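Data card: per-record layout.
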Amino acid sequence: MANSRIGEGVTPEQLTRFFDENTVSTQAWDLVRHRVVTEYAFKIGDVPGIVVFMEADSADEGSEIVNGLPVVQQGLLTFELDPIGKTMRF
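The structure for this 90-residue chain is written out next.
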């Protein structure tokens, strides 16, 4: 699981504007299409951002995946990775 935090010096308004002005990148869509990213959610409240559930072989691979996203490359978000096991569906 990759849990994002807003980048240093970035305002919530800047992050909101980025998501409002940009469609899902080809790279991000490919991650969903190929089931690398299995679930994601936008965080609301005092700490905006995204939580991403993904299938990766290692934490290093997970880091490479999230660090390649345009929102990270532009310094708007950073991600902390928390390795987890299989998610359960009810």
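Known properties of this structure: The two ends are 19 Å apart (CA to CA). The helical segments are 12-21, 26-33, 59-67, 70-73.

See the next section for split statistics.
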